[in-house]
Amino acid sequence: MPDDGRIPAGLAEVVFIMGAARSGSTLLGVLMGQAEGVFYAGELCDWTQRNGVSSVPRSRPFWEQVRSRTGPLPPEAGQYKRLFEHPAGLWRPWARQRLRPGYERTTNEMLEAVTAESGCPTVIDSSHYPRRARALRRLLGRDRVRLVYLVRRPSSVVRSFRSTGDKSAVSANAYLLVVGLLTWLTYLTHPRSRRAIVSYERLTEAPLEVGAAALGRSLDGIDPSRLTLPPVLVGNRFVKVSDRVEVRLAERPPTPTAQDRITDLVQWPWRLAERRAGFQ
Q: Could you give the number of structural domains in the chain?
């Protein structure tokens, strides 16, 4: 457990959404962020990479205020994400040991500034790198971190990557296997009372039910068809397009191809996670 002096003032908990890219973490985060006292910050793993500057123009005034509270970042801050959150950092233990105090201090200062500027004791963070969850647990303690494991049908994730040309079917499947295994290990080593697993498919069917399960509290009174966007640090395409977001009800999925069936068979960690989330 960390010393009390390392816990950001006013911070009750960090809700951390983990899962592969294209799984709907932004949508889930925006939905949960509608609850009172909850602030969805986006992907805080990019704080040091972007030097505190938001990728969303409308969000920049908020993050400029956060940046003014934290002061200048240390010169080595550009290495933090790769060393402490990306899987590649596992092979550089000596560099991690040397830079860990600065990384933890910077993360702590950023969380304290976000809590103070937003006025919300619960901050929602998200990342495709489950190692960040381990870093948060080390810094804040397990009782102040709630893990949300968000899964989406593997064939849908691979199809999304292929549609934009970001990854081939082979590279997308390799990526999913690595992320799936690391995320499962992180999830299973977290206290049962401080974790939840939900699926994107179920989110589009029953958004308030899934959002409440993920956050650990009721979302009654929130309209999923009209969600107000918070000033996120990093946003995907739909966050950058409009001031509002809606949870669209699930449409009938396309007829699976042979490649879709092979993907869903290969990605056994994700299929297990889907079933754990109650989506068949």
A: 1
pTM of the full structure: 0.88
Side-chain-facing half-sphere of 127: CA atoms under 13 Å: 25
How far is CA 87 from its chain centroid? Answer: 16
**For tokens 């810094």, what's the residue?**
139
User: Sign (positive/negative) of CA torsion 150, 28, 200, 86?
Assistant: negative
* Domain enclosing residue 187, as ranges: 4-276
Element containing residue 181 per DSSP (H, E):
helix 169-188
Q: How many helices (H) and strands (E) does the chain have?
A: 12, 7
pLDDT at 217: 94
| 60 contacts 232 by C-beta, under 8 angstroms | no
Q: Which two tokens stand for residue 90?
A: 């596992």
Closest CA to 151 of 187, 125, 122, 123: 187
C-alpha torsion angle, residues 123, 85, 193, 6 (rounded to 10)? -60
Element housing 198 (H / E): strand 195-199
Q: Are 232 and 54 in contact (CB under 8 A)?
A: yes
- Confidence at residue 128, expressed as pLDDT on a 0 to 100 scale: 87
Task: Find the CATH number of the domain harbouring 261.
Answer: 3.40.50.300
Cα separation, 138 vs 110, whole angstroms: 16
- Residue 40 CB neighbours (<10 A): 29
| Residue 251, CA distances (Å) to 67, 142, 275 in order | 41, 37, 20
Spatial CA neighbour of 148 closest among 186, 206, 197, 194: 197
Q: Are 33 and 242 in contact (CB under 8 A)?
A: no
- What amino acid is encoded at 58 in this protein? R
Q: Please compute the mean of the pLDDT values over residues 21-47 and round it to a whole number.
A: 93
